[in-house]
Amino acid sequence: MSGFNVLWLQSGGCGGCSMSLLNAQSPDLISLFEQSGINLLWHPSLSEQSADEVSTLLQAILDGDIALHALCLEGSVMRGPAGTGRFHIMAGTGKPMMHWLRELADVADYTLAIGSCAAFGGITAAGDNPGEACGLQFNGAVAGGLLDEHWLSRQGLPVINVAGCPTHPDWVTETLISLAMQEFDQTSLDNLNRPRFYTDNLVHHGCPRNEYYEYKASAVVPSDLGCMMENMGCLGTQAQADCNIRPWNGSGSCLKGGYACINCTAPGFEEPGHPFTETPKVAGIPVGLPTDMPKAWFVALASLAKAATPARLRENAIADHIVVPPESKDKRGQS
Question: pTM (2 decimals)?
């Protein structure tokens, strides 16, 4: 088979990253893969083959008869019970998915964790984690999951963590295209092995509520228009992703939809220790401050900003629609 061969497997997750992937636009997913020379060997939801045909395909890959350029896993690795992996047997094979993943990762040029479950364990690993869920090469923020922390693919890269819950379709397709074009290396990854082309940004960049943030004009209830950092649990000033620069479906993002950023590209986001839509505070100061700003500076800046908040922003911040529109300049008398 010619082209850049991609095998997509799913384990402990909801399938949300596949649903997101189907929303790829300009062009659509299938056209994009065709134009980029990406050959999808199999996907559990998008492919027709099942059972015996898939078993034959996987064995052909392991035997070296079919080249595997990229192995993609969506969903966390299910290691339970007691490390046997038998909570997830791959249908038709009688073999735990975790064993298939180990063997296929060793013959693939690259291995990708698609979404935060596959990358870090994610939602599936929350709570008591009876399924012993983990990421491919991370267990939460700790290096070492199914594959140990020193594991490298045949092309010398660790697992590429295309984290997000769900991950943006462009994050997946751009990573695969960059790999196919041999334009992706270790410098393309951040400290959690996420692609830097999206994690070198903050969700805060391009946020539609930035003017409210600048003046610390804060929302109080979910329907308010104001900044959600102070009271509503928003972590956009800490979350590394470009969600508001490249929105979903051409126009949407959590913040544009009126919901606080929960930092879903980071390990441990699923258990913040408090309700997602509440901001914990110490002595009235939000705990979720921008990562690169000292607390004293933030307090001083916030006090100054609130003192200078225009009445328009102060009133609109605690309303569910624009109450006071911007004033137009009076141009009468101007030549």
Answer: 0.93
Alpha carbon distances (Å) from 134 to 83, 152, 223, 260: 11, 18, 36, 26
**Residue 76 pairs with which residues in a beta bridge?**
12
Same fold, 4-199 and 201-323: no
| Blockwise average pLDDT, block size 10, the chain, 335 residues | 89 96 91 95 93 94 98 98 97 95 98 98 96 98 97 98 97 98 97 98 94 92 94 94 91 92 97 93 77 73 84 93 87 56
Residue with structure tokens 């991609």? Answer: 6
CATH class of 201-323: few secondary structures
- CATH number attached to the domain at 4-199: 3.40.50.700
**What is the chain's alpha carbon radius of gyration, rounded to the nearest angstrom?**
23
Contact 303, 286 (CB under 8 A): no
The phi-psi region of residue 321 (left if phi > 0; otherwise alpha if psi is between -120 and 50; otherwise beta) is: beta
> What are the structure tokens assigned to 264, written together?
């879903």
What residues contact 181, with CB distance under 8 A and at least 6 apart? none
Please give the C-alpha separations between residue 323 and each of 25, 36, 188, 229, in angstroms, as whole numbers: 35, 48, 45, 21
195 has which bridge partners?
189
Q: In a 3-state reduction of DSSP, which class is residue 58? A: helix
Query: What are the structural domain ranges in the chain?
Result: 4-199, 201-323
